[in-house]
User: Fold these one by one.
Assistant:
Number 1:
Amino acid sequence: MVPFLVAAMAFLAALAIAGWLGAAVLTRHWESGAGAILTVQLPNPGAPSATGAETRLIAVQALLAAAPGVDTADTLSDAQVNALLRPWLGADIKNLAIPIPAVIAVHMAPDEKDLTGLAAQLAKAAPGTIVEDQAAWAGRLGILARSLQLCAGLVLLIVTLVTAAVISVATRSGLAARREAILIVYQLGATDSYIARRFATRVAALAYLGGVIGGLCALPVMFVLATLAAPLAAAPTQD
């Protein structure tokens, strides 16, 4: 039974390691990707700004371009906004009776966020502008992912301890079942180290066989999980 038990433990260990690595990748992606993006919604982008010198959209774009800590500020096109809203509204934005605000994706430099001051400047130039910070929910997702990493680590530790216990019990059972044969071999001149090495080699071979079988069985499952998680870990896009 040693190969089957070790195979089951190896299968669980492989899944735990895959879960730990996947959670680590998602954490880095969320915190460095979505967590560094601000969404600026600008109602009536074509209306005059507070100064009247330009449109509200041009005024907001100029403020964002000059704001400290802003790496890029990309205004989404009508096609991009339409692609975002179609699953929710089910229609083209041109056919809607309500005005759709302009959406600007702002990529912030790390550790350089002055959202209060930036929001105040934007609201002064274009009243009604909404600034949404993605870092709050990205941080909560990061905490969730790190919790999953902790759970995966605990599972891996438990699996390792159970595997060691299984191999230990199997070795002791093998020694007890062959007690008479061991005594005869011992009386014929075999040393303790020789007998122990023979048993250890056999149990190690069985455990290795079980580990290989369990690892191979885990590969298809890990491939499917990696395929499902790939869109979540993809590089952030502007649409």
Note: Residues 69 and 111 are 8 Å apart (CA to CA).
Number 2:
Amino acid sequence: VVSREHYISKSLLHHLNQDKKLTIAGLPWLAGATKVLPPSALASGVLCSRHNAALSRLDDFAVRLFQAFDEGKALGSGRKLVHLFNGHDVERWLLKALCGLASSKSLNFDRETDVSIPTYWLELLFGGVEFPEHQGLYVCRSIGEIFYGPHGLAIQPFARNGRLDGITVGVCGYELILSMTGFPTRTIGERNVALRPLELYTTGPNFEKSILFTWDGVADLGTISFQNPGPRPGTDS
């Protein structure tokens, strides 16, 4: 029996929607707009009930990941925060979102683009195999990158060489890139990226934070540094 499932984790969507202002951007059917939507707008019949139950752990994981990236309560607190995650769970959460978008026909590529889901993606999703070399989580590694962290999600699937390849998810201003073919040169356009970093280290107005990832297999490791200047001028968040 196919059950209705949120391809962006249900628990995370409801967490973001506590004030009834869930903000979503980047999906093709939004036509470039940023809109306030209910969590039900991001649900579709994708997997059977048994498989959805098997992946339910990723929903709780997604909330914990978002809370680590969300710095609203950290600004000016004087706190030194440390968060530890299994990096492969981050990859599986991103892959679940990508597969859900593809299965629900929520992509907007041209007809020549192959958006089918390879069998081995599902094997990766359910933990049956490991990501091949160069495939997995990438993060921009420009040192001292300055950004503002909106309280929401920005979602952008992408294709390369005629087929669906990955997804970029912005979480509170941080950019997580999952590529299913990888970037062996460690570049995306003119940007340098790192595969599976060890640490994302952020400093901001009277706080600092480390998000640490554990990895098995190929990983660039290292620390990527960010700077959060605080609320965007003229806003409260």
Note: Residues 87-103 form the longest helix (17 residues).
Number 3:
Amino acid sequence: MTVPSISSSSPTLSVGLLIAISLLANISMDIHLPLAPMMMAELQTTAFAIQLLFIISVLLTTVTPLFWGGLSDCYGRRTLLIPSCMLMTIGQFGSAGSPTIEALLVARTLQYIGVGAVLTVALAVICDMYEGQTRARAIALLEISIPIGVLIAPLIGAFTAKNFGWRYNFFILGILQTVLLIILIKKMPETLKERTTYSWEESQHSIQRILTYLPFLKPVLLLSLVNAPYMVFITHASFLYIEKFGLTEIQFALHQSLIAFTYFLGLLIYRRLAKHYSIPFLLHLNMGGYLLYGMLALAFSREVIPLTPLTITASTLVSSFVSGSILTSCSSLALANSTNHLGTRSALIEFIMGSIGSFFMILSGCLNHSTQSVYTIIAVSVGLSFLVWQRMYHRNNQPIST
């Protein structure tokens, strides 16, 4: 089969295809959240084992990009996207047919080995095709797949499980991913202009050089710390809303969808503002809003504000509205003026973000499951993010303006 070229394929089609694939990856990560108690009962397992379904997805999308990113810099983006999408599809069908929690964890492992490649290579493709402010706006468009996925995943999951059973969620996603895989093979062009021979030693040297470059490292640390509180929250959300407060699966799904819609709205506003204002200015603006969320988290941890579904959702809405813009701004600053090793740079962003998020998630899972302890961890993460933000603009270590 002839591989489509960039000139013969529409960039809009390529970006749209990447968004659709990323969307399914994000939906599959969250679709089981309102079903956690139901799955725990049917599979006769523990709450922590069900939480592992989410934790393992974060861990794998953290570690595997270091492998996929360097390979995509050498052998091409399309070459890596096709097998990774195949793994995603196999994992979905495997999840649908898993008779035990162990089998389900194996299926999720296969699936998220592929997802790690998709999320990394998709970002590298965007960087291949665009530069400067246009790149920042394209990254924001790709990031929109996250809130859309979180917006519809709980609703789809709860509705499908109620009428057909929770396994059908994964089966339907497997069919949709099969369709996207066929389109990918037929339509996705190769965007890497210059290929090189893969070398493990050179790959490690590239990683070391990138990690010691402060204009890259600091914004990546910031976006990782800003992302961590949501990872902690979502790990405990279903048990908190359903078991502690007695909400139904549908009510919980509506809460999650509202949070995702706010994230989506924040990104849309960011895309418009990015046409007129610099990325550092927008980062300052949104970090001001993030400070409010940190103060609310601290108040929850000290029981100054009562913990109810309303107060918890309201505080998370504040975080969601500004977090997407902060993540997009930091990604753009980290990748500013970069033309080489884009796959490796994208992989390192996923690796650092996932590592920090996984650390806080596992920490919250190992401690007692009280809401106060969860929000103590969230408050610590927010505090650390402000320390990194301050260091980004300390003396001459300002991020690159784009």
Note: The chain has a mean pLDDT of 82.
Number 4:
Amino acid sequence: PSVDEAGRSGLKRDYFLQEILQRIQPGGTLIDIGCGWGAFLLNARQRGFQVQGLEITRKAAGYAQTQLGIPVGTTQFLDTEFAPESSRVITMLHVLEHLPQPKEALEKVFRTLEPGGLFCGIVPNFDSYCSQALGERWYWLDPNYHYVHYTPDTLKRHLESAGFIVERVYTHTGDYGRDTVTREIAQRESVLTPAELSQRLTTL
């Protein structure tokens, strides 16, 4: 994409950045692990963070570096040196489930954050309605690339084990979209009251 297109991309994930800004002031370093071509980091830089990323796909990393001017390394997170307590925010957006050593990665994130720093991310919800309904056809199962799957409870436990204080864990329809989820429910449930349908959609 052009720089203008990058600035309009949904991958800027503005809703996600707004949540970060509700909890922490910009100005320090924000590291995005698995940053892709840098749309989210571009947004964070525009909001006042000093940004850097890691991305093992070299073409995507090259775009972020050359077109957006964002420093992006191409090494694995556990192989990359970060000074202790050097980052205000670390993010992983659909990345943690790809890491073969998530325990070690979370412990390193904790060491890299400054006191009062923030770690946040997005992972597929293994306890979601779509996961349970679709079984092996669940899109996010992805056995070739997803090494670990999390429910809200297991994610919270893993974070706490690494030293974090968990402020919030919540679920969302995410990349499936509400229409796709509603259609899947309608195919499987013969009769649902509006209240029952609403309840299903809050646990996806």
Note: The chain has a mean pLDDT of 85.
